[in-house]
Write a structure and sequence with these properties.
The chain is an alpha/beta fold. It is about 30% helix and about 25% strand. It is globular, with a radius of gyration of 23 Å.
Amino acid sequence: MKDEQYMHLALALAKRGSGTTSPNPMVGAVVVKNRRIVGKGYHKKAGLPHAEIIAINKAKEESMGATLYVNLEPCAHTGKTPPCTNAIIKAGIKKVVIAMVDPNPEVNGKGVETLRKAGIEVKIGLLEKEAQRLNEAFIVYMEGKRPFVILKAALSLDGKIATKTYDSKWISSEASRRFVQKLRSEVDGIVVGINTVILDNPLLIPKVTRPKKYPLRIILDSKLRIPLLCDVVKTVNKYKTWIFTAEDSRTEKEAKLTSMGIEIIKVPKDEFGRVSLKHVSNELHRRDIVSLLLEGGSEVNGAFFREGLVDKVMLFYAPILIGGKTALNLIGGKGVDFLKDAFKVYVTAVKRFKDDIYIEGYVHRNH
């Protein structure tokens, strides 16, 4: 096997931690000696041993003089676990191949420096783009100081997410919906606006057998209009739920919702009288929320775009045409005046889910 193959294995191992490592990144490690894999592992959950430690422990004495392949720079600081660099040095690892430097300011180059000072050869940048894609949410969380936001939507070929009567079940195929349920179990939170709760009465959980986790349910409700008998409220004892509301929202209802187990978080309003998404984003970052799945309606989607908070789109186009001026578009609000101001999407995947066309891409902000 070549270096690239060992790193591909490290990346594949890291991916096993998808949905369970947050707020930590996904990391996989492989220990190789004389072209033979003698140890491998991945980080399973925050607070548990890091990938490098697991791989070295499995390699035992064969770590001496071996090469360690890891998709993210080993930590050199004490967090919930001791520094990985200490264990690497102590094990006698001769060379460390790293896909990408850790964007965490507490690490960022310090791990590499520590290893080199100990006389260990360090190579950086092997399959770097693949490593960055794997931990894209963690990078935005660390560098952008906010959660990574994925806009997910099912829509008609003419860009409608519901009819003029708000009928939207179901636009996408069962195959598309199965894919989405898996995605839900891999993010930290699902975000919707209050109109979606009132109109659709969603449960906002992954509907799969034994999901990796149940993400946090986040509702944007500036006036606390949420119905006390909706499915989200009725299931708060099972699934963690936060409501972001305006600072001057109804205190009587707030007390009732709080007594039922919902956490109410008050933030300032924006210029439109809705909760300020920048304050919401800052608060979620402060609370270690790394990734969000945005399943909002037209207006919430538009607000996230307006604030420049959407990083990625995952769109499922069904082979139907809805039409009508009052049918709901994917993105509400005023929109842009000129094409030059439009958000560019760099498409990275186009697939078929039965009859649906799936498009995945990254949003580029040019303003």
